[in-house]
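Structure record:
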Amino acid sequence: MTDPATLPYRANVGAALFNRAGKVLIARRADLKRIATHPWQLPQGGIDGDEDPRHAVLRELHEEIGTDAATIIGEIPVWLDYDFPPEIMARSGSKHRGQRQRWFALRFTGTDTMIRLDTHAHPEFDAWRWADLGQIADLAVPFKRPTYQRVARDFAPFAKPDGAE
């Protein structure tokens, strides 16, 4: 078996999508709902080749939640890494040790009816809801919690209703 420490990270983007009330969209992973006690996550996905991360985050939103009705309002200016746990690496046969992510805060410019989890042949999510930004780390799988804590801290200024000071 390959030593995970020798494997590369997969380039990835993450989206903290805020509605007008300052809540953030979280979605339940369809493949984790039966085996994980914390199957919720923020939309995220891979960067294709030399794709610009700002383009990738909008593309991933469209692929995962059926809409790209959003405007980028913030970004964490450094890449954040997390490693996959050994059991996930063994089950998936991953060629990556984890994810290296660029995180964006986005303001949702559409309506809730525009969020569609059924637009992809193999939907990643089976449910979604709006949540308080401060809850996201507690709802996620443990290996993503440090990243989500950083996202919550850095994007806290966006977690307020439109027009609030």
